[in-house]
Write a sequence for this structure.
């Protein structure tokens, strides 16, 4: 994976792997949707301290929840 310094990097406690989907926590959902104003399809980097760094995209977004889909490492 190339280094991309404009992409947001977030810590998540969940296991990460290709195709995994999960809802971001309340604070991270607010940050992604309202502070950064990212929409569906926007890419972010995820890490959990065990599985390395993974690229992910916003799969769905509502007022209070952002759903992330893990893509690749």
């Amino acid at each position: 994976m190339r280094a991309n310094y404009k992409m947001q990097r977030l810590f998540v406690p969940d296991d990460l792997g290709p195709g995994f989907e999960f809802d971001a926590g309340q604070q991270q959902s607010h940050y992604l949707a309202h502070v950064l104003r990212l929409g569906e399809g926007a890419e972010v980097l995820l890490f959990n301290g065990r599985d390395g760094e993974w690229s992910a995209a916003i799969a769905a977004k509502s007022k209070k929840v952002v759903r992330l889909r893990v893509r690749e490492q």
Observations:
- Residues 26-35 form the longest helix (10 residues).
